Amino acid sequence: MDYKDLQVLFEDNHIIVVVKPENVPSQEDKTGDIDMLTLVKRYLVDKYNKPGDAYVGLVHRLDRPTGGVMVFAKTSKAASRLSEQIRNNEVEKHYMCLVHGVPNDKQSTLKCYLKKFEQENIVRVVPELTEGAKYAELEYKLLETKDNMSLIYVNLITGRGHQIRVQFSSISHPLVGDKKYGIEEKMKLPLCLWAAELRFAHPISGKEMVFRVFPPETEPWTKFDMEKYLGIRIKNIY
Fold it and tell me: How far is CA 147 from CA 140, 226, 233, in A?
């Protein structure tokens, strides 16, 4: 991917909001593949003809296979204020995902403790008192079911790595396309997890900012009428 292909939803002197494609790291990792932080920096350097480097603050992340909306800070002041909002759970992160099967509860809250095992690069549900365990919580609502797949709306309360994937796998409804926590599929589908909406207060003006993006127009997302759910205020779905 080239920085010239970057899809910019909004930009001012303080923040830039972009769409992260699937399978692009949020920041540099051991693979050396191009990452979002680098792409945004290159975009700004080119657009404003900046000598050398451009300041870009990474205030939140999406797992590599997950695509969707991300906000980056263009100043250290904006980065600090956005980070504070995230720490205070004042940033709303809404996701769409496809899971195998149909959950028994059409609307529920999932709570557990998660621990990352670094050597295996895997996250597991563990007892509360396990060393290194972190509390994880999300709310979900079942929107639609087709071909033994369910379209799920997720309101992420905590932002743990691999959280949505692990929590749905733990209730026996792994995400479609999830090779790590799900079913080994003959069809090579991408992970069906999409950061559909981001809500936060502008770090300088305080104005409410709302950004919504649709999942890719590819199978199996196209089995579902996404306009029905994302064409309205997604917050009202829950």
Answer: 20, 16, 27
Confidence tier at 234 by pLDDT (50, 70, 90) = very low
Quick check: 58 and 80 in contact, CB under 8 A?
no
pLDDT tens for each residue of 132-165: 999 999 999 999 999 999 999 999 999 898 999 9
Alpha-carbon distance 216 to 21, whole Å?
9
How many C-beta atoms surround the C-beta of residue 35 within 10 A?
A: 20
Residue 2 has pLDDT above 90, yes or no: no
**Tokens (6 digits) for 138:** 């999300």
Q: Are strands 15-20 and 57-58 parallel, antiparallel or unpaired?
A: unpaired
DSSP secondary structure letter of residue 175: B
| Residue of 5, 53, 63, 225 with catalytic role | 63
- Determine the 3-state secondary structure of 18 from DSSP: strand
Sign of CA dihedral 92, 37, 114, 171: positive
* pLDDT attached to residue 52: 81
Q: How many CB atoms lie within 10 A of CB 53?
A: 10
**Is residue 63 annotated as part of the catalytic site, yes or no?**
yes
Q: Are 124 and 112 in contact (CB under 8 A)?
A: no
